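Aim 2, interim progress: modelling of the dioxothiomolybdenum(VI) ion-bound target.
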Amino acid sequence: MSTTPASIIGTATPRIDGPLKTTGAAAYAADFHFERMAHAVPVVALIANGKIRKLDTSTAERMPGVLLVLHHDNIGPLYRTAPGDDNATNSEVRSAFEDEVIRHWGQHVAVVVAETLEMATAAAAAVHVEYDPQPANVRASLDDFKGKHKSVSERGDFDGAFSDAQVKIDATYITPIETHNPIELHASVAVWDGDHVTLYETTQGVVNHRVVMAQTLGLPVENVRVVSRFLGSGFGGKLFPWPHTAMNAVAARKLGRPVKLSLNRRMMFSSVGYRPRTEQRIKLGATKEGKLVALRHEYLNVTSQLDDFDEGCGEATPYLYSVANLEVASALVRRNVGAPMYMRGPGAVPGLYALEAGMNELADELKIDPLKLRLINDAEKDEDKKLPFSSRHFRECFEVGAKKFGWEKRTSSIGSMRRDGKLLGWGLAGASWVALRLPCTATVEFHSNDRVSVRCGTQDIGTGTYTIFAQVLHEKTGIPLDRIDVILGDSALPDGPMSGGSMVTGSVLNAIAAGADAATKRLVQLATATEGSAMHEAKAEDLVFTAGRIHKKDQVPADGVAFADLLHLARLNGLSAEGKTQPSWEDPKAKGFSLHSYGAQFVEVEWEPEIARLRVSRVVTVIDAGRIINPKAAANQVSGAVVMGVGMGLLEETVHDQRTGQPINGSMADYLMATCADSPDIDVTFLNYPDPAMGEYGARGVGEIGLAGVAAAITAAVYHATGVRVRELPVRIEHLLQSKILEA
Ligand code: MOS
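Predicted structure of the complex, ligand included:
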């Protein structure tokens, strides 16, 4: 493992926004209150397919405090984003308000606005909707698919190589619909001032949200401002705007009053996305020695009636292993369900579950240690893009993880390991996640009140973005964290990226560093140009900036001038400079490389056959994500992702009622997620190799990578303990009762 010089970069740093959150001072979207604010409550469809025959709002409109009832007949135009626009939203707005067609249960059909939340809730229940229902198809299984897959990636001759292969695996792996369940519900508060609107939102992308809402509402983009200072997470569900934002903004415009709308938990299961069900067929062909010769990964995912949402399960497949003959192909299956949306580690997480489960089965078939199988097939270069990797330490992830986990003590036969009256199962899997540097801008400013700030139109989804930005500013200026202000979560700030794809760190740090360098340079120039400054008429190249002071290179900082004193002397309130991040696909140091993070997951399960209790007891995760800026926040991200992996492996699944099309477990009580009690002992290790393609700090960013591979390692461990090969998530007691081992 590499070492980094002592600096705040790479030092565990408590969150600078922690006190705001623990004291309740951090304002989330629904915490915004305004004079004369009214409350909106949606009315949702109670069928999954058909048409609205009659929508009678007369009773609701006469109820106390009711101000407005909007539906497709009176909401007015809501515009679409153009096909192919980068910032296109999904089709839910169309689905909700362009016509009287119902395409899924829970689709918004009206919104009631009243003086209080209670009045609006009561009136929403009194909106009378009659439907002409059609049979709804919410069938979970996609095995009725009859079409053709479309090619995602191809090389060599898969068919020939597979048919000639000495050892083969051909298996289908299924992941269910999973629903994003951030603690903070989706909410929007709209405040109009003439034809300008401010939206207090919970969004993973203030800049994109602004562009899409301007388009949807028919406004120039400069008339819309989106504020999202704090998020109670999103997991991808808050990447793009959903219809409630639009209907709330229209209601506020029509009423000329601020309006707040917060979805409830049940609505979170039907109108703001989910990870689609996938059915993935993996074919692997190998030599007797374990060298892969053929790999085919074909998958289906469910989508809605209007969206062509491709989950991208084949994302990591073409580059993760060395294999000469490969095919990846995908297809969609429509159901009467809402629009799917990216959910933590989209594509790669369900995709790697299937690929890595297939690799584990191949290892068993070959009677080769699954770790060794990974090492035999490690890729030297990206065989898909035909590019070298910028920084890949996949092999070391396994080697370090094996040591930490004690992998060499594993005995390979089923049910052969026991501890404290329980059967043990040990499994592993590889992980990977894409890295990119997105273009963005940050402004760094030195202020006459002795503080320094950075401003960027990105947001902190809860992962520690505020803190790492302050760390970079401290690293650059030497100014202590308590005199640094990080200002995020406002579309009026310089354009910043979405909090998505674990890409904020790798992207924005470069802009902040460039902005800090440029602002410092301006300070130095100011020192030479300001009369009365001790540095007046010195040569800029003889000056340096240390810990907030400008001084001559041959002086100690104390002999120089403090930046705030210089600003006062020059009669400036502040001095700022902009920094930009060059996107990785334009940078000569990055564009000729394949940029990814890697990881290895080692899982131990405990199985008590006598009482059919399965528990993930221990996870060792080793992550190669470039340089780690804040090991405290990063480890927190990865261990959170591992807990989510336990949920993916054992618990999470959204189930639709076949008669009504309603998600029947659409509540925090009925949708099972891993809790503290389900959480294993988690050991997170970062390899910490700076990635030269990622810019000054070499950070690729973390979060989603921690979830990849966990479920495949769990199912391998389950097989090792019980002998039951589960290929459909989540692993259930019903699966495990097939075990032939009846006591530990
Ligand atoms: Mo993440 S699914 O990129 O918010």
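DSSP finds 18 helices and 27 strands in the chain. The pocket of dioxothiomolybdenum(VI) ion is lined by residues 204, 234, 236, 239, 342-344, 346, 500-501 (CB under 6 Å).
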